[in-house]
Amino acid sequence: MKLGLSIGYSGGEMRLPVEKVLLAERLGYDSVWTAEAYGSDALTPLAYLAAKTERIKLGTGVIQLAGRTPANAAMTIATIDALAGGGRVICGIGVSGPQIVEGWYGQPWGRPYYRIKDYVTIMKKILAREEPVVHEGKEISLPFAGEGGLGVGKPLKSILHMNPDIPIWLGTGMESTVRLTAEIADGWLPLGLVPETYETYQPWIEEGLAKAGKDRSQFDAQGGGAVIVTDDVQSALDRLKPNIALYVGGMGHKDKNFHKEMMIRRGYGDAAERIQELYLAKQKREAVEAVPDEFVDQGALIGDRARIQKRFRDWEDSGITGFTVSGNEEALRLMAELGRLNVDPAS
Questions:
Q1: Rounded alpha-carbon distances, angstroms, from residue 346 to 4, 22, 27, 342, 343
Q2: Number of independent structural domains in the chain
Q3: Which one, of 168, 217, 177, 171, lies nearest residue 193 by Cα?
Q4: Within this chain, do residues 188 and 269 fall inside the same structural domain, yes or no?
Q5: Tens of pLDDT along 121-147?
Q6: Distance between CA atoms of residues 264 and 266, nearest Å
Q7: Considering only CA atoms, which of 5, 62, 64, 32 is closest in space to residue 225?
Q8: In terms of residue numbers, what domain contains 253?
Q9: Is pLDDT at 347 greater than 70 in this prediction?
């Protein structure tokens, strides 16, 4: 199984763990993944890492669709790929949520299914450079033909000869968008996937692949989670609960929170409702305490070597093609061993 390293997005100060990325590359990790919310962006760090690394793939997990036009996303990702030597960038895209889309980017939430479909289709046309780009979509069109336009937009073809094979992966979780992901994208970044729930998504993936005439060898699925090497499992579980409570309880509108919906799909509906209720009532400590140990443990690799190895086998047998690690140097080294990577002796 391919392993990735998650470095997420920065907090109040811009920090990029370059040494950790270099270690992951030496250990044989396949990819490193950035993210964005409403602070540091996901693409600029990859350009910096492209100059510091030689082999490891550079992925966004994910860029927010509303933050850039599809043309801007294609231009930026193609430029980084060229700077990195070609064939090293993976463009992961997600819709985020309506609070960020409308509150931060000032864009309409619209119809996410069609927004995703139009966005990816336009990006692939731009990367291919087969002809000037024209797309008449249900949510996004090129040239622009909406209210406020002059009606003089000209179809254009990229000046830069882009890599037409840059993979586009999608971060999705609902039935319709997972099926769409398998149909139009090259890979999937599932939200909150655990081995026990993969069979829920599998028929949706198969349907999407069949519609596009693809097979499983043409489609990647990358799970992931925190990895904590410790003899104190309970303390490690407790360390992860505040972030879960934040996302399930407060990261999104009360009636539109994908993290809460994911928790419900995993069979923790009562807990999800209670966490959100407490968090929105500003009872954050109680919300954290309401996160079930089992929910945390399912989505992470926690414990000593034997416990982590046993649980990692479930991931290897689940059907996914990769696992992205969030963890310290000890966790990276252990996962390289368990994943049987081709480790550089000098590492």
A1: 20, 12, 9, 12, 8
A2: 2
A3: 171
A4: no
A5: 999 999 999 999 999 999 999 999 889
A6: 5
A7: 5
A8: 231-303
A9: no
